[in-house]
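Here is the promised in-class demo. Please do not try to memorize the tokens; focus on the logic of going from shape to residues.
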């Protein structure tokens, strides 16, 4: 009896694997043949809720820090470039693993190796940052902060929990990228919503009157604990999605030749991808140094602006994760008209979105300023930034879509050049000059002007290219 049943049992898993592979093939074919608007909608909407939840959790964390006092808000603001660096590494790892998995024949072997690679990178990075945390913050201007001696112990414990959660957070982001690469947008969105929801619930729970009296934790430390618990729980859910929902086996022979070869390939792709991702946190760090020269209150205000900006740019940010999937696959299939149609629709949606956001933030700027901090300079600086910067976000949205599409079709050098010009040729020098001329207000105006200049540059380039194509066609 046992021998009669064994073949059926052994065939069950291969049949299940084939079914998963068939579903992935159907998803890919649908991206190439479905209605452009329908495909973009299906790729984007799940990610919209996922990214909204993720950045909302960060903003709520900063709000709880502001309730503790302006000193705690300023201290956390100093740590934001460090957190942005961790996020850049996480995104880079997700891109690397997703890219390799979509190209690999033996998905299961590479998935297990990728997770081990993720753990090693996360643990190494967390250790390096922890050992150099104080010098990094000093470089950002933390040494000039008058209340540094008062808030450093609690900030240190907060960062201890954040860095302890790095490995788990990286696993979440890598599995998020893998699910997207497989076309499972709903599963990817559920993963980020779960992580963000847990962080919000834990943060709120740890700030209840009972938790404040019963748990021997400082204010910022509570936020660190909430992030750690959310990351651990979400990483377990991520492994469940990978193993059960996608039927990816996580067995691996670490010392085998295939495993060593997979490690080498991951590392070779990891270096350039992460280097590209690190440009933004590097620019944020340099910008924080410029802002810190205007005083600790300017740092507190700028920290709030840095957390609001991703939410204001929510749709463009989501489209930079979904549009490249559409553009890359259709470009590879030589469907250039379909690619052009998709980009036009995405750009039109972003222009409408940013116009609405600019109006909402303009009319609600005073409430945001007072809501985060009642200290006059901080609240007025937040209000000023929310009246000026969002007007330039439409141009920035176009730049973001342009860069993501260049990467999707293999023109990464062009994408890199645009990013370098925006950040290091226009934004940073402009912010420095603005700070010298008109303080924090000068910095805000310089950043807005940089967005407009790059956007206008790309529009001019697109118009010139169209004129050239028309002349060639007429000849």
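The designed amino acids, position by position:
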């Amino acid at each position: 009896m046992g021998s009669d049943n064994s073949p059926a049992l052994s065939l069950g898993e291969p049949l299940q694997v084939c079914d998963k592979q068939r579903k992935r093939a159907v998803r890919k074919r649908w991206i190439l043949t479905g209605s452009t608007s329908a495909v973009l909608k299906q790729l984007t909407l799940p990610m919209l809720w996922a990214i909204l939840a993720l950045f909302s959790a960060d903003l709520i964390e900063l709000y709880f820090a502001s309730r503790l006092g302006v000193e705690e808000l300023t201290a956390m603001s100093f740590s934001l470039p460090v957190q942005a660096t961790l996020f850049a590494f996480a995104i880079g790892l997700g891109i690397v693993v997703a890219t390799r998995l979509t190209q690999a024949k033996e998905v299961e072997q590479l998935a297990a190796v990728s997770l081990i690679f993720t753990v090693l990178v996360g643990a190494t990075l967390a250790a390096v940052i922890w050992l150099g945390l104080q010098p990094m913050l000093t470089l950002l201007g933390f040494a000039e902060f008058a209340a540094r001696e008062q808030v450093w112990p609690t900030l240190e414990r907060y960062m201890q929990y954040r860095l302890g959660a790095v490995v788990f957070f990286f696993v979440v982001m890598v599995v998020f990228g893998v699910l997207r690469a497989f076309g499972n947008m709903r599963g990817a969105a559920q993963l980020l919503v779960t992580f963000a929801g847990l962080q919000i619930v834990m943060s709120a729970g740890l700030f209840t009157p009972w938790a404040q009296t019963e748990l021997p934790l400082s204010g910022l430390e509570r936020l660190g604990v909430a992030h750690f618990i959310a990351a651990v729980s979400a990483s377990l859910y991520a492994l469940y999605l990978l193993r059960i929902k996608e039927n990816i086996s996580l067995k691996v022979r670490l010392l085998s030749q295939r495993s060593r070869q997979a490690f080498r390939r991951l590392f070779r792709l990891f270096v350039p991808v992460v280097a590209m991702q690190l440009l933004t946190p590097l620019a944020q760090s340099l910008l924080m140094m410029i802002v810190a020269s205007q005083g600790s209150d300017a740092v507190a205000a700028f920290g709030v602006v840095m957390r609001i900006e991703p939410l204001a740019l929510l749709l463009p940010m989501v489209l930079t994760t979904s549009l490249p999937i559409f553009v890359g696959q259709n470009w590879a299939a030589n469907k250039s008209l379909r690619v052009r149609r998709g980009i036009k629709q995405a750009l039109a949606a972003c222009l409408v979105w940013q116009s609405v956001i600019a109006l909402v933030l303009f009319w609600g700027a005073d409430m945001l300023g007072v809501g985060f901090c009642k200290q006059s300079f901080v609240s007025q600086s937040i209000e000023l930034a929310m009246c000026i910067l969002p007007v330039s976000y439409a141009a920035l949205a176009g730049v973001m879509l342009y860069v993501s599409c260049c990467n999707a079709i293999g023109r990464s050098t062009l994408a890199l050049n645009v990013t370098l010009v925006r950040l290091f040729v226009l934004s940073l020098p402009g912010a420095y000059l603005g700070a010298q001329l008109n303080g924090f207000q000068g910095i805000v105006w310089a950043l807005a002007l940089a967005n407009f200049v790059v956007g206008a540059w790309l529009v001019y380039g697109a118009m010139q290219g169209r004129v050239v194509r028309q002349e060639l066609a007429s000849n």
